[in-house]
User: What shape does this take?
Amino acid sequence: MKSAISYFNKRIIREDLKRFWGIGALYFLALIFTGPIMFLISSNESDMINFNIERYFNIYSHGFQITFSVIFPILLATLIFRYIQVKSSAGMIHSFPFTRNILFNSHILSNLIIISIPVFINFIIMFLVYKGLYTGEKIVMSDVYKWFFITLLINYTVLFMTVFAGMISGVSFIQSVLSLIFLFLPLGLTGLVLMALDNILFGFVPEADTFIKDFAFKAIPVTNQLYKEKNIMIIIWYIILLFILFFVSKYLYNKRNLETAGDSITFDILKPLFKYGVAFCTMIIGGLYFSAIGRESSFWLYFGFFIGAVFGYIIAEMIIEKSIWVFNKLWGLLPFIIIAGLFFAIVDFDLIGYEKRLPKISKIESVYFDSYLEEIRLKNDYGLLHSESNIKAVRNLHKMIIDNKSEIQNMPVEESRKHISIGYKLKNGKILVREYNIPKKMFNNNPYIREIYESHEYKKRNKIFKVDVDKISDISIYVNIINKNIVISDKDKVRELVEALKKDILNETYDEIISTKEPWAEINIRCISEICGTKRQTLYLNFKKSYKELEKWFKENGYYEKVRVMPDDIKYAVVKDIQELKDVEKNIYKIADNLEMIRGKKVEIRDKNKIEELLRTYNASYRSSYLKNKKYIVVFYLKNGEMIVGSYFDDDVPNFIKSY
Assistant: This one.
C-alpha cells in the first residue's frame, strides 16, 4: 500500500505556501474586519451585538462573507495553477522529476491549506465571541459549527470549479471568468430559459416550482438553499460534486497537452460545446431583449433568438481563434439553428399539448383561483376551492381562455389587462398551474368568474373568517384624509362588528367585489396572538361603500360620522368633463392641480345631497394616475384644506352631472 507521501511532494507544498500565503492572510483580514472587529466595536450595545452575530452566522445574510467565499478561492486557484497557462513555465515545471499526479495533488492540497486556515482561525475567534459576548437565544452552538462547515464547503466548491476551469482553458483570465460562469450557470440559465418559455408558451408559469428550478437553486452554493435546507442529501450532493470536480480535473490535467497553454479552450472536443453553449445563452438573452422592446411580438422574439445566436457564436469563435476574422466559419452555426428551430416549432405549435391541457373533472380534487400564484397554498391545500360548482367554473374559465388564445395574445398593448392564476390539485397528488393576462373586459363580464366570486366558499377565503374573535385586542377604523379614527376594544362590540363585516362580505355581489369605488375607511383588526387565524398580528380590511350591515351597525352605535367622509366635511366639489382630452393627457394629479386651465365643461357642486351622491359613487384615484377611458374627474375640497380626487366612467357618473 502506498504511503501518503507518494501522492504529494512536501517541497511543492512548501513552495506554494511560501509564495501564496498572502492570499490566505488577506482572506483572514477580510473575515476578521467584517466579523469579530465589528462585534467588538458594538460590544457596549448588547442588542446590536446579538443582531450582528445572528446575521454573521447566516452566511447568506452577510453579503461580504459570500463575496469573499467566491473571490478568494478563484484568485488562489488561478494563481497556484498559473504555471500551466504559460508555455515556458509549464514546460519547465513538468520537466521536474515529479509525476503529473503528484504535481496536481500537491497544488490541490496547498489550495486547501491556504483557504482553510483563515476560516479555522476565524471559527476559533467566533467561538470565543459567541461564548463571551452573545446573550441572545436565536443562535446555539450547532449554528457556529454549521457556519464553519458551510463556509468551508462553499470555499472548496468554488476552488474546485476554478481548478476545473483551469484545465479546460489555457488563459488565466478566461479561467476566472469560466469559474464564475460555472458557479452561476445553473441558476442563470434556468432563469433565462423559464423567461423565454414564458414568452413562447401560452399560460406558462415561470414562478412555479419544478424539478429543474429546484435543482438549479440547490446545485450551486451561492444561493441560500445550502443554509436553509434541512435535507442531508444536499450536503451529500456537494461532497459528491467535490469528488467529481477533483477526479475530472485530475484526469484532464493528465491528458492536457502542454502546448495548449495560452489557448482559450485546451481540448478540441470541448470547442463545439463552448461555441454552442455561448450561442444558446446569447440566443435566449437576444430573444428576451427584442421581445421586450418589440412589445412581446412573436416576430421580434424569434428575430432576437436568431440575432443572439449568431452574435454569441461569432464571439465564441473569436475567443477560440483569437481573431476577428471568423465570419467564414458561420456555417458551423447551421446545425444549431436547425435544432433550435425544430425545438421552437414543437413548443410554438404546442405539439406537446401543454397549452391545451385540461384535467378531467373526475380527476380534480380542488382548484386554485387568484390574481397571482402562491404555490404553497396548492401544496398545503390552503384556501383552495373544493365544491363541484367552483371546480367546474374554474375549468370552464380555463377552457374559455384557451379557446380565445388568439384574441388574448393579439389584444392591443394599451388595452387594460387582468392577471389571473389557475391551479389544479389532482387526486393523484399532481399539481397543474397556469397564468394568463386577459383583457379586463373579459374579466369583468365573465360568467364563470362571477360564479366563483359570488360563491360563499370563495368569499370565506377572506382571513376575517379565520380570525378567533376572542383573540382580537381591538379594531381601529381610519379615515386618513380627514384624520378621523376610532378604536373599538369592547369585546361585545368587537364581536358585533366582526359579524356585521362577515355578513357584508358574504352578501357582496360580483360587481361590488370588483368595484373601483373608494372605500369609506380602513379597518385594522389587531390580535393578542400572532396567529389570530393568520400569520400576522394585524388584519387589514376596508369599510366598503357596499357594506350595508356595517354601515347600519356604525349608525346604531354612534360611530357613523367618525368612520367616513361626510358632506359636512366638504366645502364644495368640482366635476370636470375630460372627454376631449387624450388618454396621455389624463394625468389625474396634473388635472386636479390645474382645473381652470384644462379644457372641458366644469360643474361646481355645493348641495349636500348631491355631494353625498358623488362621495358614494366616485372611483378611486390611487389605482392609476392616468384616467384611461375615464370621462369625468371629481375634486372634493375639504374644510381642512385637503383634496380628494376621483373619477367616473361615462356609465357610472350621477345623472344630475349629465344634465348640466
Notes: Residues 567-658 form one domain. Residues 100-133 form the longest helix (34 residues). The two ends are 105 Å apart (CA to CA).
